[in-house]
C-alpha cells in the first residue's frame, strides 16, 4: 500500500475542482479530459471504443461463486437482475469470471467454453443475456494461463481471442495478470487493447493488473477501467484499506476511464449492514465500477435496498465524472467529498472508529463559500435535512457507518 499521499495536497486539489465546477460545466467533459491527462490519445481511444462514459455497473461471478460457474447460474442471475429491478437501475453487465473454458484450446487455437458447464456455448449465452436487455462480460488473462490455471490465457493469442469474443457477442472483457512471460504489463495490455479495437464491436476493456505498476498512470491509453489494488474480500479491513489505496489515484479517472478498487462485497454476509452501506457509499463517491459480487438470486431485502439506492447510484453515474476523495481524517473520523454536475457536491461523513461519534464538515473545507445558500439532501434517509445559509453540517455517526449528502444550490426561478 502506498503511503506517500499528502492529505493537504488532496484537500487543495479538491477545493480547486469544486471551484472549477462552473468552468467544467461550461467547457464540457472533452475539455476536462484534456486538463486531466493525455488528451489526444484519450480522445482517439474514446472515438474508437465509445463505452464506459460513466462507471460500468453490473454483476461478476468471482466474489461469491469463484470457479463454481455454469450457464444455468448465469442465466438465472440475468433473470434476477431484471426481476429485482436492478437492471433498470443500470446494472446491465453480466460478467463471467475465471473457469468458464476448457483447459486447452481446440486444434485451431481457439478458446472453447467448458462443455460440462457451458454446453450451449458462450454465443448462445450472450444471445440469452442480450434478449433480457443486458450485456455479457467474459474473462481472460494477459498470460499463458488464467489465475485458476484451469484455462488458457490470451498472451500471444490476442487478435484471435478478440475476434472470438466479438463473434460470441461479448460486451466486456476483464483481463487478468497471472502466469505471464515477465514482460511489462503496459506492453501486454496494449496488445489486447489494439486487438479489441480491430474487431468492430465495442467491448469494455477492464485491466486487472492489481495496481502493481501504477496502472492509473498509463492504463487510460488502453482500457476503460483498471484495478488499482489487490483482491477485495468481505471484511471491514479489506474495504477500508482498498478505499485508501484507490483514493491516491483520483486525478487519473474520468469519463471512459475509471479507477477500479475491485468488485462489491455487499450481500456476501460477513459484514454488517452499516459496513455494507459505507462500502457502497465510498465506491459510489469514488466513481468505481459498481459490480455486484453476491448471489443476486438470493439477495435479501436489506441487500437490495443498499444496491438499489437510486440516489447513491446517481452520484456514481454523475456525468461530470470526477472521482471524490478523502479530504480529512482524524482518529478514524473522515470526510470524503467531490464535485458533481450542476454546481453540486457530494459529501460522506465516514466513521471508521469503533465508537459512535459526531463528525462535522465546514463548507470552506470542500471549496464552498460559507455565505452561499445550500440545500442538503441525506441520500440514505432520502430526505432534505437543511436549506438556506449555513457554514457546514454535523451528524452523529454510528461506528463503521456513514452519512452521505448532496449539497445543491437553491433552484432559481
TrEMBL record:
A GO term, aspect molecular function: alpha-galactosidase activity
Signal peptide start and end residues: 1-28
Annotated InterPro entries: Aldolase_TIM, GH, Glyco_hydro_27, Glyco_hydro_27/36_CS, Glyco_hydro_b, Melibiase_C
Top-level taxon: Eukaryota
Gene Ontology cellular component list: plant-type cell wall
Keywords, alphabetical: Disulfide bond, Glycosidase, Hydrolase, Signal
One Pfam family named in its UniProt record: Melibiase_2
Family: Belongs to the glycosyl hydrolase 27 family.
Listed PANTHER family: ALPHA-GALACTOSIDASE (PTHR11452:SF36), ALPHA-GALACTOSIDASE/ALPHA-N-ACETYLGALACTOSAMINIDASE (PTHR11452)
Protein known as: Alpha-galactosidase
